[in-house]
Design brief:
The protein has 737 residues and is of the alpha+beta class. It is built from 19 helices and 22 strands. Strands 16-1-2-20-21-22 form a 6-stranded antiparallel sheet. Strands 11-12-13-14-15-18 form a 6-stranded antiparallel sheet, covered by helices on one side. Strands 3-8 form a two-stranded antiparallel ribbon. Strand 21 and strand 22 form a beta hairpin. The longest helix is centred in the C-terminal third of the chain and has 38 residues. The relative contact order is 0.08. About 3% of the residues have low confidence.
Length: 737
């Protein structure tokens, strides 16, 4: 949840012309955790709903890695500032739209620093789910008030992800920041990696605690301090502020099971909830806590009291950690954030006596929901999948991303559009409504319309996305297998594949969502016009046609500039799928680009698994060039020679005879059969072949790798495009296969 504050940041602070503003506050987020021993497939899950508002634009993007000069400052619009690290990592964020007015932008409106990154993952595999806003009690406030310029949720995700090398490193770096600058809010959030999940609680101006989450428990947190007693001496599993215990002890509000049993200076245990938590978390929080416990362990929920005895706060107990009553499936975990207490005494719908305000975990204020699934049987780089929705979980679908590998996201997540409205119907027919360009607004519109009549408008929409979600979960296994094989061959290409996969799975779901919205809006308008009866129920065509996801690695090898009918399409897919040739960036392969000497050598180096290479001795190959190791290896192996004793000419375009020669030498280096040979005299231009390349061209033609450009010409001096080289390589590898 965002704790938005009215603040303006002047030019004196940022030393520039920045546009800043702020919004309103809300409190309804919910965090979840499922340990690996509590899940059916052995995955660990951690996630959260962001309940800032039902019509609140979100942008999903990748923030690039960057280098920063000494003294360069990170500064947000709430007054927090700190020096940048010398280098910041690439990371994903699901941020507020610039139009919400709290990002730092330049005088032209361009984004300088994002606000409320909320959820993201960096290139080191560290993920952050932030935040579930909490509150402290009067005693804690009096002893250690929040710091006006301390770090807040607006910057937490970004500050952690830009520098954390691991989950624990993120915990320790944030702890140091709070020690130095203080905290401006009370929050609960998680920092994770492939090996562990940490729950981090900012409790007051300078007090905090982080706990490593156990594998054998689950947790649900709807804006409450639910952490119970912890032992700060357990430094393997707990990171705490220096005065976490001494501050409340000296001010008379410490709650510890050790009080009266050991000397004060020997106390290491502290009940976080009872020492720092609010005196009363509020009915909405208690009801949502009960709904979450009931979802995870129905019997346990019956022992949790959430009703008041007069004005007194409910008794609970409100425990952070407990056991589920069965091992949870991925689908069940994802749907927790859509839970409305269905079928229980505290259901949000049709139960005004017990739940008069319709309080629910799955409420209309959700702007996005996310769940990180961490798999212990996967390589660390692929271990975490980010399941992400736009808008609320109830009438949406979570889409899967290898977020730490992403270098870009689809354009459908990058629209900036924030109308000042209360209901989506106010803008659905406007010309500027981004129905063709914004995943956020299409999913938001579907959810807002379905929420008006869950049974008639929403039931079949929910059913469709349920089927779609289960298909995605099932398809993930095959994608994981293929991605693992690809990553082992070529990590760089795995990044490109992950990015292409993310775009493909997103755009396919978006196309189906657009169909639903078009049909649903027409149905709603007909209903409003009195053209339908109460028995008429909306059924989207995608449900009747059973349009399910085609989520597979085919999406990863689909390049925008390679038509599926092109003569080289199969070859491009082959070299991409096998980690041999990378794309050219931005979803393209550049099939018509002529191959350079450096490119071909790098391809063979990729094929060989990038072995250790000596220093390159060619004067025109810089030590930090992307192809330096490849050239050094190929020269040392006798696969290539320089154009002179000292130069390699990496940018020189390759001819067909040069490609044949290099492949011939590579085949000999690998001890492949190179006895195939054709008489080339039938080609009218055979005399143009250089003496150094005759034997290689005879072999390449005899092996079917390089055929004639026409029936009578071989074109040995002609350049070779990336498409042609992909085809030659596919033929070569299949022949030695």
């Amino acid at each position: 949840m965002k704790q938005k504050r009215l603040k303006q940041l002047g030019a004196a602070l940022l030393a520039g012309s920045l546009v800043v503003s702020s919004g309103v506050s809300a409190s309804a987020c919910c965090g979840l955790y499922v340990g690996s021993q509590q899940s059916e497939n052995g995955s660990t899950y951690v996630g959260r709903s962001e309940d800032i508002g039902k019509l609140y634009d979100k942008v999903f993007e990748v923030r690039p890695a960057a280098d920063h000069a000494e003294g360069e400052m990170y500064e947000d619009t709430y007054g927090f500032s700190m020096p940048y690290p010398s280098h910041t990592y690439r990371y994903t964020v699901l941020r507020d739209s610039i139009e919400q007015g709290e990002s730092v932008v330049d005088e032209d409106g361009n984004l300088v620093r994002e606000a409320y990154g909320e959820v993201g993952m960096n290139e080191k595999g560290v993920s952050v789910s932030a935040t579930v806003s909490t509150s402290y009690n009067a005693n804690a406030k009096a002893a250690d008030p929040l710091v006006d310029t301390g770090i807040c949720e607006i910057s937490l995700t970004s500050v952690i992800l830009m520098s954390a090398d691991s989950a624990r490193d993120g915990v320790e770096k944030l702890a140091a920041i709070i020690d130095t600058y203080g905290s401006g809010e009370c929050n609960s959030f998680t920092i994770s990696d492939a090996n562990e999940v940490w729950d981090f609680e900012t409790l007051s101006g300078h007090q905090y605690v982080a706990m490593k989450m156990p594998d054998d428990k689950v947790s649900v947190n709807p804006n409450m301090v639910v952490m119970n007693e912890i032992d700060v001496s357990d430094t393997e599993n707990v990171v705490a502020s220096a005065d976490l215990i001494s501050l409340p002890l000296e001010n008379g509000f410490l709650v510890s099971s050790q009080q009266g049993k050991v000397a004060d200076d020997q106390i290491t245990k502290i009940d976080i909830q009872k020492t720092y938590g609010s005196e009363d978390f509020g009915n909405g929080q208690y009801f949502r806590y009960w709904q979450g416990v009931n979802y995870l362990n129905e019997e346990l929920s019956q022992s949790v009291s959430v009703e008041r005895d007069g004005e007194a706060a409910p008794e609970g107990p409100f425990n952070m950690l407990f056991e589920a009553d069965h091992q949870l499936t991925t689908y069940e975990v994802l749907r927790l954030l859509a839970c409305r207490g269905e079928g229980t005494e505290y259901a949000a719908d049709n139960n005004p006596e017990k739940n008069p305000n319709g309080t629910a975990i799955g409420n209309e204020r959700q702007a996005e929901c996310h769940v990180f699934e961490i798999r212990s049987d996967m390589p660390e780089a692929l271990a975490t999948i980010q399941w992400q929705t736009m808008s609320r979980a109830e009438f949406s679908v979570y889409l899967p991303y290898y977020s730490n590998l992403l270098t870009d996201t689809s354009d459908i997540f990058q629209t900036e559009y924030s109308p000042s409205i209360k209901d989506i119907e106010e803008v659905l027919d406007d010309e500027d409504f981004p129905a063709e360009t914004s995943a956020y607004w299409v999913f938001t519109a579907i959810n807002d319309l379905c929420d008006n009549d869950r049974e008639r408008y929403g039931a079949n929409v929910k059913l469709y996305w349920e089927n779609y979600q289960k298909a995605l979960i099932e398809q993930q296994e095959a994608v994981d297998e293929a991605m693992t094989a690809l990553y082992e061959k070529n990590p760089e290409l795995a990044e490109q594949a992950a990015t292409a996969l993310a775009k493909g799975v997103s755009e396919e779901a978006f196309a189906n969502a657009k169909t639903i919205l078009t049909e649903l809006w027409a149905f709603v308008k007909a209903d409003q016009a009195g053209e339908l009866t109460e028995e008429d129920v909306f059924t989207p065509s995608v449900l009747t046609e059973n349009k399910m996801p085609t989520y597979s690695m085919d999406m990863a090898y689909s390049f925008d500039d390679v038509d599926s009918s092109a003569w080289y399409a199969d070859a491009v897919s082959y070299v991409a799928e096998n980690g041999i040739m990378n794309g050219a960036g931005n979803g393209t392969f550049a099939p018509d680009t002529v191959m350079s000497r450096a490119m071909l050598v790098q391809v063979l180096y990729n094929l060989e698994g990038k072995p250790e290479a000596a220093d390159c001795t060619f004067t025109d190959v810089a030590a930090d060039a992307w192809y330096a190791d490849a050239v050094a290896w190929a020269a040392d192996a006798g696969i290539v020679t320089g154009v002179s004793d000292t130069t390699f000419a990496p940018d020189q375009m390759m001819t067909r005879e040069q490609i044949a020669t290099i492949l011939y030498r590579y085949a000999a280096y690998k001890n492949y059969d190179v006895t195939a040979s054709n008489d080339l005299s039938s080609y009218t231009d055979a005399g143009q072949i250089g003496s150094y390349a005759v034997e290689a061209m005879q072999w390449a033609n005899g092996a079917g790798l390089i055929t004639g450009s026409t029936a009578t010409t071989l074109n040995p001096l002609g350049s070779a495009t990336r498409a042609e080289v992909a085809t030659i390589l596919m033929r070569f590898l299949e022949s030695v296969g």
